[in-house]
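FORM 7B: Structural annotation worksheet

SECTION A. Query
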Amino acid sequence: MSERTGPLSNITIIDCTMALAGPFGTALLADLGANVIKIEPPHGDGSRSVPPLPPDYANATSEEPAGVDYGGYFASINRNKRSVVLDLKKPADKTVLLRLCEQADALVENMRVGVMDKLGVGYDTLKQHNPKLVYAAIRGFGDPRTGESPYAEWPAYDIVAQSMSGHAHITGPAGNVGYPSGVSVGDIYPGTLMALGVVSAINHARSTGEGQFLDVGMYDAMLAFTETVVANYGYGQIELGARGQHHPNLMPFGIFPTLDGGIAIAAPGPGHWAALCQAMGRADLIEDERCKNVFVRKRHQEFVEGEISAWTQSLSKQQVVDAIGGKVPCGPVNTAADIFADPHVEARNMITRFTPPGDNPEVAIVGSPIKFTQTPAGFYREPPTLGQHNDEVLKEFGITRPEPGEES
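SECTION B. Predicted structure
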């Protein structure tokens, strides 16, 4: 383990989240140096067992405990955290959580409405123990404290938020009933906004002494993510359809076929359009009446798309990049293998490698995209095994687990 050197190294987060949305947000905070303590039930976060799994875990039996109890999914969003096991149905463990929160800056959870309150560790209880505490929640449809929703009690997953926000409606080929994104943006974006909200609320608490409750609804976050759906309808009652491979208003601005995959080309402005035409050997298109500006090109999309595709599909992705890279905004549609081989990814430390405990080979997860010159952030602690830091954290906080009858 290396030292926490990120700009948030002076804040402590009690992380009661599981699955993806909450742990992704707290992983961002941990990357930035926050002291993130992951509270897990005795059976652990269910995402520990989600593939891909290292050999030591995948081949383990009940009689042969694994050297590591997490796979790549868990590792990717629980790096840099410490794990403490608490059974919040037990008074003694509930008391431990309360005492942790007395010394923390924030608690984050992503349970359904009312769950933490029923356990006796909801916001109204915790703020009595620490008035400066920031309490952040991610819910499918928000929390009644910040705005009543007819769906407040509904369970939700990423796909639900993508669909209800209109994101699925504008994704994929034309004429479809809705396509989800290839990654779980309905979890990842709410988690990202939650991290921003937590930092903002801690800043307020430190200047005023006043903590507060905040929440991010997954539906709300995805509405912000798909702001173009709202803006187009709000300005002109235009209902955007599925985007397909090209932009609804700009041309060219999309993905074109090549001999070995696809390549993104974006040349809506006159300078980039002229450079693209020159590289294609089609200077005649610069003055063509069907191509004279971005709006005309959009009206003649079939023609423009066809001319560009005729050129790209005779070349490989690399040949197109060699022809227009640095002159016209472009980029290959990368596979995972392409990403791992990209010199940019290596230069920017966007792949983090480590060896899990036990008899396992080196593995890799994504690195931190936020780079600092004075307070380096990133990977400094391996993902924790379940309950790995119970004794360490309680000792650090000066907490002795109460005996039955001693709870407060």
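SECTION C. Observations
The CA atoms of residues 14 and 76 lie 19 Å apart. The chain has two domains: 12-225+347-396, 253-335.

SECTION D. Sign-off
Analyst initials: ____
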